[in-house]
Amino acid sequence: MMQGMDASKAALLEAGLAKIRARFIDSLEDRIDDFCAQLEILENPATAEAACTEIRAQAHKLHGICGSVGQPRMGALAAQVEHHIDSLLAGPRPLNTDFVDELLNALLDEMEQNVDGA
């Protein structure tokens, strides 16, 4: 319990946070679908750069919320995806997206475990 906060306020706060966490877990199915769609686009060298840009944007959003909903591992994986894509896009072409694929699959595994555990 937070110092100086009575039990009823702490209970209300915890209940609110639990609802936020539940909504986040519910949103993971759509996020998984979006990432999977981008993985397919990533396979085509002609669309790989656009897929990387979209994956990076989705990973950035996910990374941003994970700390607030008690998902540090998922957040760290999303950050890895984001930072690797930043490096990749700054480098030579054609893009070698093998590691993006590997990192994204690790992130997807973590997301699916959270959905399955809910």
TrEMBL record:
Q: Which residues carry this modification: Phosphohistidine?
A: H60
Protein name in the entry: Hpt domain protein
Gene Ontology biological process: phosphorelay signal transduction system
Entry's PROSITE patterns? HPT (PS50894)
Report the Gene3D superfamilies cross-referenced here.
HPT domain
Q: Which GO terms describe its molecular function?
A: protein kinase activity
In what residue span(s) does the HPt domain sit? 13-118
* Keywords carried by this UniProt record: Phosphoprotein, Two-component regulatory system
Annotated coiled-coil segments of the chain? none
Pfam families with a match to the protein in the record: Hpt
